[in-house]
Structure formats: structure tokens, C-alpha cells
Amino acid sequence: MSVEELKRAVLEKAKIEAEHILKKAEEEAKNIIEEAQKKKLMLIEEKKKEIVAKLNPDARIAEAKYRARLILAEAKDSIIREVVIHVNSILNSLPQNIRFESIKRLIDESIQEVLNSVGKVNSITIRVSSKDIDFIDAIKRYVEESYNIRIEGIYTTNIIGGVIVECMNGEIIIDNSYEERLKKVLRNMMPQLAKIGL
Q1: CA nearest 169: which of 153, 157, 158, 145?
Q2: I need a labelling partner for 183 at 20 to 30 A (CA). Which of 7, 20, 86, 98 fits?
Q3: Do the Cβ atoms of 92 and 98 come closer than 8 Å?
Q4: Which residues, at least 6 apart from 161, have a Cβ–Cβ distance to it below 8 Å?
Q5: Dist. CA 194–CA 198, nearest whole Å
Q6: 152-198 tens-digit pLDDT
Q7: Counting beta carbons within 10 angstroms of the beta carbon of residue 161, is it exposed (0 to 12), middle (13 to 18) or buried (19 or more)?
Q8: Between vectors from CA 114 to CA 111 and to CA 118, what angle results, nearest 5°?
Q9: Which residues of the chain carry a pLDDT beneath 70?
């Protein structure tokens, strides 16, 4: 082998080794990059899990809904309290003539309800607010003349207005006090208030 041929052979061998080293380096670099990518993705997933665990969105949503329900319940209670206060204020300040007309109308409703239940009654007892004590004689006359029903007694009781009519020794009691009427109105409001919720 001549010197020139030996030189070429050495160069060729060096070239092959260089290419081999370069290829190996590229593969190693590729592996390093892929490994780094995997670690990066794993790290991202771990961080995501940590954030989700800290935030706990389901628990936070449930807590928010619970707080919203409490706020709504308080708002509904507040509405009811305001209605009661407002209505009581109106009822307590009714002029005497309107108050008496209201009592007569509630007596009419009460007696009609009694008659619908038992057909006929001979006597009734009526309870009114102490504010209406001045109407006792007028109430007695009104009932006896309008219905030919004897009044056993008209007594005051702890109501702000309206009447409570009793008959048959208290077996039948028709509570048409303002308080009871207001309760009925509020019960009728409940379905509408219930629609305001979660």
C-alpha cells in the first residue's frame, strides 16, 4: 500500500468514526430531549393536580351554593318580616268605621263557614281584640239581627283585630283574626318565594 493509499484509508476510517460518533451524539441528544419532554409533562400534570387539590372546585361550588341558599333564606325571612310589620301597621291604624266594617265582614265569613259545616247553630261566642271592646254591643246587635243567632258572649282576646267565632261548646272554632288571615296570605306567598331559589 502506498503512502497515498494509506492516507486515504486513514481518512476514510476517521470519517466513518466521526460519522458514527456524530450519529451516536444525535441519538443521545434526541433521547435527552425526549426524556426532558416527558419530565416536563409529568411536572405539568403534577402541578395541575396540586392546583386542583388546592382549589377543590366541587367543594367551592357546593360552598358557594350553600351560601347563596342562606342569603336567599335570609332575604325571604326579611321579606316576610317586612310584610308582617307593614300589614300590622296598617291594621293597627285603621279608622274605627273601617275596622268595624272589617269585623262585620269577618263575622259574616265565620258564620257562613259554621253554617256550611253544621247547617244550623243557635248560639255562638265571639272573641275580639281589646281594641274593639267598644264594638261589643254593635256586634251583638248585628249578629242577632242578621242571623237570628244568640250571642253567648263577646270576649276580648290577645289578637290585633278580626274575630274568632266559636260554637257548640268550642267544638267548632273559626279563627278569622287578622293574625290568622295574615298567616294564610303568607302561606299563599310561599310557593312564589320558593321559586326564587337554587
Answers
A1: 153
A2: 98
A3: no
A4: 91, 92, 94, 99, 102, 103, 128, 129, 131, 132, 177, 178
A5: 9
A6: 999 999 999 999 999 988 899 999 999 999 888 888 877 777 776 54
A7: buried
A8: 140
A9: 196-198
At 114, the amino acid letter reads V
Helix/strand/coil percent split, the chain, to 5 = 75, 15, 10
Virtual CA dihedral for 156, 160, 166, 172, nearest 10 degrees? -150
pLDDT value for 91? 84
Query: Backbone phi, then psi, for 166, in 5-degree steps?
Result: -125, 150
> Which residues have CB under 8 Å from 110's CB, separation 6+?
163, 165, 174, 176
Instruction: For the chain, list the strands marked E by DSSP.
Output: 123-129, 150-157, 162-167, 172-177
DSSP 130: G
